[in-house]
Amino acid sequence: MRVDIISIFPDYFAPLDLSLIGKARTTGLLDLTVHDLRTWTSDVHRTVDDTPYGGGPGMVMRPEPWGQALDAVGTGTLIVPSPVGRPFTQADAADLAGADHLIFACGRYEGIDQRVIDDAATRMPVREISLGDYVLFGGEVAVIVIMEAITRLLPGVLGNADSLTEESHAAGLLEAPVYTKPASWRSWEVPDVLRSGDHGRIARWRRDQSLLRTAGRRPDMMTAYPFDHLDKADRKT
Ligand code: ADE
């Protein structure tokens, strides 16, 4: 997968050299380039922003550098992180993991001149994506989050692909709690069932915990969960 990230803070993306994203880059699964938007400015101050038409606080990112930057990286799926975007979900991550070329445009200040997005949409799919109902300084951190969610779904990135099917959100429910050794820690015991070796009981316990957690923490997910995905034992839980 090819990824181009355009930002006025390229240094923000140092973490993308680390861990499994870094490894995906060295092994060639991920061909990722970070671009400095100011490369495409022409004045001595390398200006990327100006005051908003119609008045109001803050500054807006000017269209000219963005237009040139997007022309230079070519076409793909353009992702613009923004608090006015659609909420990002695991389904979006799975969908974007199938793309050949992703382009991320990191807005700062009050955002990017809308014409940049409207113009790009005439030649490529554009998605404005929000991480949640809160406002960040800019799109950089959101891009790192979105890239993590996508990269771990790329074939060959995770050692054990089973962890993808078992995990929270993959199946519409939150995952059960997990434990490791020692069996007793500060007088806290690992639930007996997990040490029983009875795989049927363990699976049932995990399923129950998953349903209880989801119902308690995320009633919205429980409501959305298809009723015909619940077996008889689930309905008792
Ligand atoms: N940029 C600023 N706030 C954001 C948010 N909540 N999600 C994505 N990008 C953003």
From TrEMBL:
<dbReference type="GO" id="GO:0032259">
    <property type="term" value="P:methylation"/>
</dbReference>
<keyword id="KW-0963">Cytoplasm</keyword>
<dbReference type="Pfam" id="PF01746">
    <property type="entry name" value="tRNA_m1G_MT"/>
</dbReference>
<dbReference type="InterPro" id="IPR016009">
    <property type="entry name" value="tRNA_MeTrfase_TRMD/TRM10"/>
</dbReference>
<keyword id="KW-0489">Methyltransferase</keyword>
<feature type="binding site">
    <location>
        <position position="107"/>
    </location>
    <ligand>
        <name>S-adenosyl-L-methionine</name>
    </ligand>
</feature>
<comment type="similarity">
    <text>Belongs to the RNA methyltransferase TrmD family.</text>
</comment>
<feature type="domain" description="tRNA methyltransferase TRMD/TRM10-type">
    <location>
        <begin position="1"/>
        <end position="223"/>
    </location>
</feature>
<keyword id="KW-0819">tRNA processing</keyword>
<protein>
    <recommendedName>
        <fullName>tRNA (guanine-N(1)-)-methyltransferase</fullName>
        <ecNumber>2.1.1.228</ecNumber>
    </recommendedName>
</protein>
<comment type="subunit">
    <text>Homodimer.</text>
</comment>
<feature type="binding site">
    <location>
        <begin position="131"/>
        <end position="136"/>
    </location>
    <ligand>
        <name>S-adenosyl-L-methionine</name>
    </ligand>
</feature>
<dbReference type="InterPro" id="IPR023148">
    <property type="entry name" value="tRNA_m1G_MeTrfase_C_sf"/>
</dbReference>
<dbReference type="InterPro" id="IPR002649">
    <property type="entry name" value="tRNA_m1G_MeTrfase_TrmD"/>
</dbReference>
<comment type="function">
    <text>Specifically methylates guanosine-37 in various tRNAs.</text>
</comment>
<keyword id="KW-0949">S-adenosyl-L-methionine</keyword>
<dbReference type="InterPro" id="IPR029028">
    <property type="entry name" value="Alpha/beta_knot_MTases"/>
</dbReference>
<dbReference type="InterPro" id="IPR029026">
    <property type="entry name" value="tRNA_m1G_MTases_N"/>
</dbReference>
<dbReference type="GO" id="GO:0052906">
    <property type="term" value="F:tRNA (guanine(37)-N1)-methyltransferase activity"/>
</dbReference>
<keyword id="KW-0808">Transferase</keyword>
